Amino acid sequence: MTNKLNIGIILGSTRDGRVSPQVGNWVKELADSRDDANYQIVDIMEYQLPFLGTTDGTEPGIAAWSEKINELDGFVFIVQEYNHGMTGALKNAIDHLRDEWHDKAAGIVSYGSTGGARAAEHLRGVMGELKVADVRVHPTLSLFTDFENFSDFKPADMHEENIHAMLDQVSAWSTALRPIRISDDVNVEK
Ligand SMILES: Cc1cc2nc3c(=O)[nH]c(=O)nc-3n(C[C@H](O)[C@H](O)[C@H](O)COP(=O)(O)O)c2cc1C
To answer: Quick one: which of 121, 152, 156, 168 is 20 to 30 A from 53 by CA?
Structure first.
């Protein structure tokens, strides 16, 4: 058992032809050059989650999703703007869980025509309800200048500094919140 933080880089889109894996892998590469946490890609598509409440809830992906979010100390959401909000797939995946999110920290990396800013703000409201501490630094990527043909990700160099600043905050807040969860567990056992 390691004391290192486990941080998931959550891909928010599931559509065929999505660019989120390119963005997530770039963030992971930068994150892996640090020594503050174990970073992993968490692809919501792999869990094949049904729309919440439309099945009996026994699909293996639902339990696996719960287990995955439960084991993480913090998150970096890769957020893309769909109709001025986050994707339905990401909102559905978030709604499937509750306690698994509580008392953890999150950063947001977003993209869209205006850097995905509106989708990121949408997500921040949701994070508040789920007791996730979303950090201030928020790298925003432009579909016009950080992608070629809106599909080949070619991020401007200036974003790297911002990614590290965001990860600094996620790592600090994830560390600070961990003891709260441990003391909650102790209280439950009592
Ligand atoms: C249904 C839909 C709605 C979209 N709405 C917006 C929008 O409101 N604002 C925006 O900046 N981009 C919008 N876009 C463009 C997406 O941000 C862009 O296609 C991006 O690559 C989507 O992320 P993905 O490739 O990971 O799915 C929309 C795309 C789709 C598919």
So the answer is: 121
Q: Is 134 in the pocket of ligand 1 (CB under 6 A)?
A: no
pLDDT tens by residue, 120-165: 999 999 999 999 999 999 999 999 999 999 999 999 999 999 999 9
User: Judging by beta carbons within 10 Å of its beta carbon (0-12, 13-18, 19+), is residue 189 exposed, middle or buried?
Assistant: exposed
Residue nearest to atom 31 of ligand 1 (CA): 82
Rounded to the nearest angstrom, the distance between the alpha carbon of 21 and the centre of ligand 1 is 15
Rg (CA), the chain: 16
Contact of 14 with 49, CB cutoff 8 Å: no
The protein residue whose alpha carbon is closest to atom 1 in ligand 1 is 82
- pTM of the full predicted structure? 0.96
**Domain boundaries along the sequence of the chain:** 5-189
